[in-house]
């Protein structure tokens, strides 16, 4: 199975409330298919104990855990290309996570629009082999 990809020019940083760590891990690792990085891996990082980090080969999503997060519920979503929209939809349905299926102009352009457990807007897009970043 192909790995997931984050659709971004650079790393993505979002915030979440302290205490949502396990739910965020479920969403970004199990549903979105990203790898979690040990935050203590970078010894020079100031936020190593208060940040969850998920990545693919090229980009990284950082979730800063703060007492009063600023949640990106509107505006630009995090777009993650996943191997299977059907599997992602099943996992979201199992936990009663609301999502909307979006279709673009062409048949392959399908996405699931949802929110991560912190309320940040996320779109899961079907990853096609020849689809450019």
Characterise this structure:
- The protein is of the alpha+beta class.
- It has one domain: 2,3-Dihydroxybiphenyl 1,2-Dioxygenase, domain 1.
- Helices cover 16% and strands 35% of the residues.
- Strands 1-6-9-8-7 form a five-stranded mixed beta sheet, covered by helices on one side. Strands 2-5-4-3 form a four-stranded mixed beta sheet, with helices on one face.
- The chain is globular.
- The two termini are 19 Å apart.
- The mean pLDDT is 83.
Secondary structure topology:
Blueprint: E1 5-7, E2 12-17, H1 21-31, E3 35-37, E4 51-55, E5 60-66, E6 78-82, H2 85-94, E7 99-103, E8 110-115, E9 121-126
Parallel strand pairs: 2-5, 6-9
Antiparallel strand pairs: 1-6, 3-4, 4-5, 7-8, 8-9
Identify the strand order in the major beta sheet.
1-6-9-8-7
| SS content category | alpha+beta
Count every beta strand, where a strand is a DSSP E run of 2 or more residues. Answer: 9
Number of H/I helices: 2
Largest beta sheet, briefly? 5 strands, mixed
Name the CATH class: Alpha Beta
Q: What number is the mean pLDDT?
A: 83
The named CATH superfamily:
2,3-Dihydroxybiphenyl 1,2-Dioxygenase, domain 1
Descriptive labels:
133 residues; alpha+beta; five-stranded mixed beta sheet; globular
Short description:
The protein has 133 residues and is an alpha+beta fold. The protein has a single domain, classed as 2,3-Dihydroxybiphenyl 1,2-Dioxygenase, domain 1 (Roll).
């Amino acid at each position: 199975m192909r790995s997931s990809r984050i659709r971004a020019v650079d790393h993505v940083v979002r915030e979440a409330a302290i205490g949502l760590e396990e739910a965020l891990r479920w969403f970004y690792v199990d549903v979105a298919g990203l790898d979690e990085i040990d935050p203590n891996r970078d010894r020079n990082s100031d936020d190593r104990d208060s940040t969850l980090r998920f990545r693919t080969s090229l980009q990284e999503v950082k979730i800063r855990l703060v007492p009063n997060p600023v949640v990106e519920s509107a505006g630009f979503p995090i777009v993650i290309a996943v191997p299977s929209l059907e599997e992602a939809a099943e996992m979201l349905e199992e936990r009663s996570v609301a999502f909307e299926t979006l279709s673009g102009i062409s048949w392959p352009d399908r996405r699931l629009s949802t929110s991560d457990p912190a309320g940040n807007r996320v779109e899961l897009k079907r990853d096609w082999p020849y689809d450019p970043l």
